[in-house]
Structure formats: C-alpha cells, structure tokens
C-alpha cells in the first residue's frame, strides 16, 4: 500500500476532486443545520441579487414554508404585540422566475391580549391644610381682559423655517368697526371715563383718558364714504378733499375769518385762504410783521422749531414751512373738534392737546418761538400756571408772541387783563421786547440770575432742584400723569438747551443736553450720536435707490422709536419733501431734548396706549426695534391696530425688527388686510433682523 500523500502532493490533486470536496462539505453543513433547528425559527427565506441595476432579485423558499408553529411559546410575556412574516402559500415553481417573481413576505402585527390598565391617578385639585389633594374648590369667572386679548388668536403651531422651530400665531381677520367710529380717538373719546371725572372746570375732559388695558380697539376704523387719496403737498396746503374730512362746522363758524371756505361751484374740496382770526389778510403778511418787529427773529436760522397754541386749521404753521421752520400746531378736541384733522389733512404737523391740569408731552426748552393768536386761553388764571407751562417749554432766550384783544383794545376789562399779563410776565423775568398793533412779543431770560435776584417770597417761586422739567409722562409705578406745577422751571447752570447753533448746523451738532440723558453710556455719547446719523443716512439712501422712495407720496411721517432722531435727520439730508414726528417711547431713555435741540419735532408716548391723533393722518410709519421691546409690556396686536387707525389708506409702514417677532407681525398685518413683503436688511440673509414693508390698501369704491 502506498503511503498517504504529503501536503505537497495534495496540492497537485486535480481540480475536480477539490470542487467535489467543497460541495460535499457544504451539503453536510446544510443537512446538519436543518436537523439541528427543530426548536428555532423554521421558515427561512433566502435572497440573491445581481449587480445589475435592472435585475429582479431571486427568492428561494425554505422547505418549512408550509408548516405552522406555536409562536406564543417564544414570545416574552411582557410583549403585547410582535411582528412576524406572512407565510407564502406555495413553494416556488419553475415558472416563478425573474419574469414572475413570487410575493415577498411582509411583516404584519399580531395583537396579543394585554392586561387591563391601572386605575387613574388623581392629579388635579388643590392642597388642603393637611397637604392632601382635594377637589373641593370654587371656579371664578373668566377675566374680560383675557377674553379680549385671545379673541383673535385661534391657535399656536410650530413653524419650521430653515431647520429652526418657532411658534407662530394664527390670527382671524379683523372686522370693521361701526361707522360712528370713523374719527375715533380712543383716549380723547372715552365718554365713560369723562362721566366719572370729579370735575371738568379746568378742562379735564379734553385730556387723555385711555380705555382700560385689554378693552381697547379690536377692529379696523372705517374710512368715510368716498374717501380719496389725499391731494399731494404743496397743493394740499391750499385745498383738501371734502370727502376725506366731511365736516362743514368750521366753514359756518370761521368762514368770515378766512380760515376755510367751500366753493359752491366745486363742493368736492375745502379751500384754505391762509388767514386766521388775528391775521385775516393772510399768514405771510403776519409773519413778515413779526420778523420786522424783532430783528433776532430770523425764521429758518435762529427760529427753527415753533409751537402754535390754539392753532385753528394751522395756517400759521403751514406758511412757516416755506421759511424752513417746523411748527407743532396744537388745539383741544373741543367745539371746533376737526381743526387738527384739517391741519393734518393739509400736510402740516399737528396734535390734539389741551392746557388743563397736566404737562404737555414736550420737553423743557423745546421751542424757539411759541405763538398764541386768539387762542382762548386765560394765561393769568390760577397764578399763571398755564404761562408757567409755556415758560417750561420755551427755550432760554426764546420768544413768546401773543396776538389778542387785550394787546390793542382799550376797554376797561381788557386793559385790566393786559395789566395782569404784564405783572405775570415781569415776575417770570420775561422782557417785553415789542408791542405793535395787535401783537406783543416777550423774550425769556438766558439764565437764572433774574430769578435768584427777586425778593424773597416772590411768586411764582422757582421749582425745587429735584424737579425734572423733562418728566412729562406718568410714573410707571403709580400710573399718575405729571401735573402742571405752579413754579418756574430752572434753566441749567451750564446753559445747555439755550445755546444751540443756528439751523442747519444744529441738525448734526451733538447738543450739550446729550450728556444729561440717562442710559448706559457716557464717554461715547457723541460717537453714538454721530454713528446713528450715519447709519440712518445710509439706510434711507438705500431705500431711495432700491425702493423708489422719491416716487412715494411721503408727507406726514411718524418715527415710532426715534432714538436721537437720526431717521428724521436722514430724510432731511436726502431732501425728501416731508416732515417727521419723532416719538420717544416711555419704555426707553428720554432722548426728546436732543431731538428738539437738533431742530426736529418729537413727542413722548407709550405705545401700549393709543396716540393722540385722528384716524388716517400719516402717510408713512417707521418702526425700528419697537416690537421686540414693547411685546414684553403689551400685545403686539394692540400696537398694530393703532398703526392701522392712524395710517392713511394707500400709506405704508416699514417695520425693522428681529426675526423672532416677524412671524406674528406678519399674521396680524395680514388679518388687518395689509399687503406685506418680508425683506433682508443690507447686512444680508444671515442677519438677525428683517424688514417688513407694508401697504394699507385704499378702500374699494
């Protein structure tokens, strides 16, 4: 017998023998696997696939495919459901090839009975004195404020934008208010609050009495029937559409004094001849007379910002605009209640305001000239408290012009009034500069020297050094307005406020009062002032180029969060023919003195309350960073509904704010019927700010 071949010999064995050995080994392993798997999962399905993309996978079926098994024996007791494969009904035949593949097994759930759920655990109620949960308690009524605030919000969903999940509020479409509210001013038309006043003898009913928070405007104020797009400036100075302000009371009362008229041949318009009660021959001639009386009254240079008290239809301020003077025209909403509405429709700065018991919403040393022509105010009553308010707002070295009957008539009662006025102005250290015809002009001193040299006990006294003459709003803690004070506001010892450059240099000169503002900066204040001006100058320049602002009919503009007034200054620099009222919110630092020192107009306001103006009075509203601040204090819908009230149909609003408030703002503006577009800022798409451009559409004819 030959010995066994060595390893070297085995490698020389023919290939056929090697293949046979491999096949036999494979068959042996398969046979063993089949017989050793009696206690396992017996249905085996084998797949084979080709590398070709269009090929259909082949399926081989285990021989156990037609057998059934008791699955409960292999399911753990704590499982309630298990997935298994659906048995294939028959083995694969020769015809079930690539053209006719057999069905592929699909896992299906097999429900298994589960134990009954445990008894529910009580997790509601209140804790009693022993710390035991109890449901023995009473449920009170819903608060009206909560119902009012949630009336229009229907749901909050998660909006995923670029992978960022943010809440989004869906808002129902706002309904129109009743027709009787088309000229509604919420804080001046609050009849319920006026009825509760203890007294109205000092004019309290003409002051602000705002609705309770949560019970304000919740609808859209309608326009008058036949409302038309306003006549553009400068034509609007001389004529406006009757349908936009459909009131004839002033024509009947003041037509003979050249205030306003209505041509019987063309009843579609009101005409404004430019006269007034004391200047029936026209405002231009009247202004020439004032400037001739006092040579230092140089309109458009030293005199840049003026206040017209009891303004009528604001012809005094309308004609000063052509002399580069901004005039704030104020009058109460009294028997001639539409005079401020006419002024704003003409395109002249104006606000509804009254001399009664509270300070007006303007800072100390704001106006270079204050004017009263037959303004129906008794300046000497109550120890001259109204003239003391004039003194607070008048810039050191500024002028007060009074045109009234006591100046030129020689009746006994009127002469007595003139004597009282002389005594009062003398005690205020005012100098009577000129009295000519029916006009008298006084000048306020430049410092406190005269006040300090008066005899002890002289009235009115100087205000305490602790008094802040720029505090014109109410205290947030006790919600009381700042009342008029029977004292003389002190002039700052450093002369700030009185020493401002002439126009136009003052527009970009950081004023001395910049250092008195309370906010988180000191050394870099002048740099912040200049940086804000540069910023808005660039932004407005971009708006003009990209958004065609010169084609927009901008006239009455409201900047809702003005800062140092940089936006208004930029509009002036780019020579857009409009005026801007810069609003300083009470929620931020009081920059109002700086705005007036620059030669601009401004006012203090709380945007959680309505604004003191008529509906449809502004062509453009600008809100930068307003909502991200004020949403902590009130509902954003409160502010937006007020914006809709004061914005003219066809007017626009630009809202520049952080991304996280834009979704809700868009929903509310759409519910108000505005047409909106969300745009990137000049910083690009990765900036945290966006600009929402809005347009309030004209009412359908």
Automatic annotation (TrEMBL):
Instruction: Tell me the compartments it is located in.
Output: Endomembrane system; Membrane
Q: What class of enzyme is it?
A: transferase
Enzyme Commission code: 2.1.1.-
Which PANTHER family does the entry mention? METHYLTRANSFERASE, SAM-DEPENDENT METHYLTRANSFERASE
Q: Main localisation, per the record?
A: membrane
Organism the protein comes from? Brassica rapa subsp. trilocularis
What is this protein identified as? Methyltransferase
- Which domain of life does the UniProt lineage start with? Eukaryota
* The entry's keywords: Glycoprotein, Membrane, Methyltransferase, Signal-anchor, Transferase, Transmembrane, Transmembrane helix
Q: Which Gene3D superfamilies match?
A: Vaccinia Virus protein VP39
What the record says about family reads: Belongs to the methyltransferase superfamily.
Q: Which residues cross the membrane?
A: 16-33
**How does the record say this protein sits in the membrane?**
Single-pass membrane protein; Single-pass type II membrane protein
> What InterPro entries does the record point to?
Put_SAM_MeTrfase, SAM-dependent_MTases_sf
Q: Name one Pfam family in it.
A: Methyltransf_29
Q: Which gene encodes it?
A: A05p008000.1_BraROA
């Amino acid at each position: 017998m030959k010995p066994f071949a060595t390893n070297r010999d085995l490698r020389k064995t023919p290939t056929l023998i090697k293949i046979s050995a491999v096949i036999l080994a494979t068959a042996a392993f398969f046979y063993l696997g089949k017989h050793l798997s009696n206690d396992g999962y017996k249905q085996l399905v084998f797949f084979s696939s080709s590398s070709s993309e269009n090929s259909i996978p082949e399926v081989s079926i285990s021989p156990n495919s037609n057998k059934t098994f008791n699955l409960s024996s292999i399911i753990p007791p704590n499982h309630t459901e298990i997935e298994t494969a659906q048995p294939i009904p028959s083995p694969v035949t020769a015809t079930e090839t690539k053209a006719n593949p057999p069905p592929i097994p699909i896992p299906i759930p097999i429900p298994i009975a589960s134990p009954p759920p445990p008894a529910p655990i009580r997790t509601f109620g209140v804790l009693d004195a022993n710390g035991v949960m109890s449901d023995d308690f009473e449920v009170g009524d819903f608060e009206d404020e909560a119902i009012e605030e949630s009336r229009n919000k229907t749901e909050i969903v998660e909006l995923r934008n670029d992978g960022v999940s943010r809440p989004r509020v869906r808002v129902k479409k706002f309904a129109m208010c009743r027709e009787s509210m088309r000229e509604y001013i919420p804080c001046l038309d609050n009849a319920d609050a006026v009825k509760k006043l203890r007294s109205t003898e000092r004019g309290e009913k003409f002051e602000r009495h705002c609705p309770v928070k949560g019970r304000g405007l919740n609808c859209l104020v309608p326009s008058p029937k036949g409302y038309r797009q306003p006549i553009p400036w400068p034509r609007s100075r001389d004529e406006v559409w009757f349908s936009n302000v459909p009131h004839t009371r002033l024509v009947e009362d003041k037509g003979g004094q050249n205030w306003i008229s209505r041509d019987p041949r063309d009843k579609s318009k009101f005409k404004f001849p430019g006269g007034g009660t004391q200047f029936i021959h026209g405002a231009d001639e009247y202004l020439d007379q004032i400037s001739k009386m006092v040579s230092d009254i140089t309109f458009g240079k030293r005199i840049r910002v003026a206040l017209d008290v009891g303004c009528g239809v604001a012809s005094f301020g309308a004609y000063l605009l052509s002399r580069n003077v901004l005039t704030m025209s104020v009058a109460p909403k009294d028997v001639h209640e539409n005079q401020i509405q006419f002024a704003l429709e003409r395109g002249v700065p104006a606000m509804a305001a009254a001399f009664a018991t509270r300070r007006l919403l303007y800072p100390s040393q704001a106006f270079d000239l204050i004017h009263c022509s037959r303004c129906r105010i008794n300046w000497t009553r109550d120890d001259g408290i109204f003239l003391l308010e004039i003194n607070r707002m008048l810039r050191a070295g500024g002028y007060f012009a009074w045109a009234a009957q006591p100046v030129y008539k020689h009746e006994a009662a009127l002469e007595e009034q003139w004597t009282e006025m002389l005594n009062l102005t003398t005690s205020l250290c005012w100098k009577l500069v000129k009295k000519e015809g029916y006009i008298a002009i006084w000048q306020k001193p430049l410092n406190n020297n005269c006040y300090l040299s008066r005899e002890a006990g002289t009235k009115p006294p100087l205000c305490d050094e602790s008094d802040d003459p720029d505090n014109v709003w109410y205290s947030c803690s006790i919600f009381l307005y700042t009342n008029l004070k029977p004292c003389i506001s002190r002039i700052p010892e450093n002369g700030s406020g009185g020493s401002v450059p002439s126009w136009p240099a003052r527009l970009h000169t950081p004023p001395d009062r910049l250092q008195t503002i309370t906010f988180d900066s000191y050394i870099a204040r002048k740099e912040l002032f200049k940086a804000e001006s540069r910023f808005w100058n660039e932004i407005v320049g971009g708006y003009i180029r990209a958004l065609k602002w010169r084609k927009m009919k901008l006239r009455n503009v409201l900047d809702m969060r003005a800062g140092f007034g940089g936006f208004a200054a930029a509009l002036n620099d780019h020579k857009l023919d409009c005026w801007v009222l810069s609003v300083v919110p009470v929620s931020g630092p009081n920059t109002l003195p700086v705005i007036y020192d620059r030669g601009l107009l401004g006012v203090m306001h709380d945007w959680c309350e309505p604004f003191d103006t008529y509906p449809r009075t502004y062509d453009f509203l600008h809100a930068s960073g307003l909502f991200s601040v004020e949403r902590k204090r009130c509902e954003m819908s409160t502010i937006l509904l007020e914006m809709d009230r004061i914005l003219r149909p066809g007017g626009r609003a630009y809202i520049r704010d952080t991304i996280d408030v834009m979704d809700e703002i868009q929903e509310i503006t759409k519910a108000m019927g505005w047409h909106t577009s969300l745009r990137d800022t000049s910083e690009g798409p990765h900036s945290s700010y966006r600009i929402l451009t809005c347009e309030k559409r004209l009412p359908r004819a």
